[in-house]
Amino acid sequence: MNKLLNMVSPSCGVTRSFSSLVHGDIGDSYYYNPYFTLFLGPMSFLVMIQGAWTFVMRRVKKDNRISLMDALFEQVFRGLKEKGGK
Fold first, then answer.
1. Which of 17, 25, 64, 76 has the greatest count of CB atoms below 10 A from its CB?
2. What is the pTM for the complete model shown?
């Protein structure tokens, strides 16, 4: 596509760009493919986070979800209370 239309293909460098983005090197990711870094990269991360959340929620029984959230909030507020009391 580069030789035919004298323009860079939008898919060139996506693999290296994604790898750099996953490793936290945004500059290299942008160098390899700026389109992916600016548009598709953030969408990929959102899809991965949503998939991980769905996986965890399927493993936790529906009855235990509320208990899990209660325990989390209790630990957070206990930590805040101890920090504020010192």
1. 17
2. 0.46
Q: Cβ distance 2 to 13 under 8 Å?
A: no
Q: DSSP letters along 4-52, please?
A: HHSS--TTTTHHHHHHHHHTT-HHHHHHH-HHIIIIIHHHHHHHHHHHH
Beta carbons within 8 Å of 18's beta carbon, 6+ residues apart: 29, 36, 41, 44
What is the tens place of the pLDDT at every residue in 10-68?
778 888 988 888 888 889 988 988 888 888 878 878 888 888 888 877 776 666 666 66
Residue 18 structural domain: 2-85
Q: How many domains does the chain fold into?
A: 1
